[in-house]
Known about the structure:
- This protein is of the alpha/beta class and 314 residues long.
- Helices cover 32% and strands 27% of the residues.
Amino acid sequence: MADVVEVRGLWKQFGKFSALAGLDLAIPEGSLFAVVGANGAGKTTLFSVLGGFLRATAGEWRVLGMQAPEGGQLRARLGMLPQDAAFLAGVPVLEQLIFCARLQGLGPHAARKECMRTLEAVGLAEVAERNPRALSHGMLKRVALAQAFIGNPELVFLDEPTAGLDPETARRVRDLVRSMKGTRTVVISSHNLLELQELCTHVAVIHQGRTVSSGSMVDIASCGVVFRVLLEEEPSPALLSALRALPEVAHAESRSGELHLGARPGTQRREAAAAVLGLLLAEGLPPRRFQEGTTLEEHFLASVGGTSDGLGGS
């Protein structure tokens, strides 16, 4: 599988601050690619450089076979959903989308037809003539998604596509993105690690302007089961040793007073949970909280040296 994005040693300076600091990245064609990082890690800056909207300070990058392309060179081949996409008040939704389509080179009739197609794809054909002020936040996000997919672009960047959406709308957005797997490349930035693990085929973790890990979701977010257990008291070394001795447990450690345990490969979740709970109860240590974790979250936190809140969402 060819790479549609190749990045080597990418730097972007804003004064003395390095938003990107020697970043390397490869995005396979046809993948649903997650870019994960804390606020300020460089994700939005990376999207802006790769989309041709911002010029890097140093490094090499190739997008859709073009070396360091500018926005005009990517016209009609690349779609972009900014994190805070906005629409003009007082101008009907369809007219604003048509304007975007015309910028991509479509004629008046083709632009109108294409924009109605994308509105139908996000389930909002009925809002075409409405004022954006009359739409909910979720509807506006879906209109922005329609704009990103005008012209069937080969490569699409989505910055926080489901942030702030209700569960049903978020599900519809995920279904739309999932339907594009293999037909185009979609790169998604989000803080919702559970969503990304379920949706994406590949992932890169960005930290302080650098890629600290990258690969397929199968390899990085393995099928292993992770548990987090909060006890009334600090886990003792003897308890950790006893947990590690269980045949169902691959590793056990204490992080800020919370137990983090990983099941051995091939062990069923219920089997591992029963073994751990059985030992804790036998030791007279009923847990205050017992949660199954997300392995992508664990991988992310291990990559950036963070700690978990046990949620894995946005």
